[in-house]
Amino acid sequence: MSAFEALTVSTLPVRLGQEAAIRQRVGDDPSAWSVDEVGDGNLNLVFIVRGAAGAVIVKQALPYVRLVGESWPLPLKRSFFEYHALIRQAERDPGMVPEIFHFDEAQAIIVMEFLSPHIILRRALIEGQQLPKIGRDLGNFIARTLFRGSDLAMETRKRKADLALFADNVELCDITENLVFSDPYFEAPLNRHTPGLEAIVTELRADRDMKVEAQRMKHLFAAKAETLLHGDLHTGSVMVTMDDTRVIDPEFAFYGPMAFDVGMLIANFWMSYFSQSGHEAHGPRDAMRAYLLDTVEEIWTTFTIEFTRLWHEERRGILYQASLFEDRNDRLASEQALHGVIHDIWTDMLGFAGVEMHRRILGLAHNADFETIADEAKRAACETKALKFGRHIAVNRTRIHSPADLATLAERLE
Ligand code: ADP
Ligand code: MG
Ligand code: MG
Ligand code: MG
């Protein structure tokens, strides 16, 4: 096993030129490959490798956080977790993640399908594109991956082995635990925010109910090892065309609460919603705003419909056994239990979503939705609405009952 070495555009063909899985897809003559580094994420290197036969993506983890530099070490093992999560997601919702061609654990390299002409969903939403399929595709993706990775569906021995495998993703969980749930609520060194937000930031950091709620969400995140999460399911981890949706970048994968993926995903649509007025230079975005609220509703509705179908057709795990319910002719018990599970996901999802909206505006890792609004006063105005919305849904999460309630609230703030 050779020591880790970061790839560069010039060393990549030499180092990976003998890999059959890559040669087959790119071409047999590595000296004719062209390599571009395209990583725009916070953590890793991403290369497109093109040749006569086609193209692949080569993603390599670095032993530190790319966004910050070598002063913030981060284990290469995240590549191992990303690979194992991708394999599981491909089984649980076929066609929704890039195909994997090759994995090198020691070099932290994953070679995968080059998604083209896909673009990052966040960028499409900033441009004002209305993708017709994402509500359904993403709703099904979360239902299938979250249900099928849990004790509702899996043989419990396998689930426990998986729980142990992913339990080692400690450092990436630590990033979420600190950057998402704690840093936004005090003057943490890595925080930054748009000038003009000082008053609301002070207010939020003094908001006892919000701080307690954020820590309750952190408690759930850390303690409720319910299913294999994607762990970083925002609109920058989704690539789209008008008729295809793919989910990438599950390096934060670990066993946690179902509501975390749901809440993080939906929060990013609400942030897109509140950022739209900053992108109206080329025309009004009213239709886009309506589309975003409809999409949130469609994600949630699709999620509940598919989760319900799986509950009835694939509930073979140790929880809510049919032997106690349907087999005893007590279908009502099964429905009651299902509604309880979905209700808890809904309530907790709102808490996670609220916190995610705060940390993207007040913490270290910001969203292009807001960051691309050049006019600071305009950006601060958009972010203020998102901060208020996030606070409301987190603190009132047990008192909000439907996507329609939330649409009304969002429209009122807008
Ligand atoms: P990070 O973990 O550093 O955030 P990502 O996996 O999100 O890395 O990839 C960074 C960028 O590389 C993505 O935003 C996308 O533009 C591009 N990318 C990653 N994977 C693929 C892929 N399979 N096909 C096409 N582009 C990709
Ligand atoms: Mg990413
Ligand atoms: Mg598809
Ligand atoms: Mg990543």
UniProtKB/TrEMBL annotation:
Domain Aminoglycoside phosphotransferase: 37-272
Pfam hit, one: APH
Highest taxon, organism lineage: Bacteria
Keyword set, alphabetical order: ATP-binding, Kinase, Nucleotide-binding, Transferase
Keyword tRNA processing recorded: no
InterPro entries in UniProt: Aminoglycoside_PTrfase, Kinase-like_dom_sf, Methylthioribose_kinase
Quaternary structure and interacting proteins, as annotated: Homodimer.
Similarity comment: Belongs to the methylthioribose kinase family.
Full protein name: S-methyl-5-thioribose kinase
Taxonomic lineage of the native organism: Bacteria, Pseudomonadati, Pseudomonadota, Alphaproteobacteria, Hyphomicrobiales
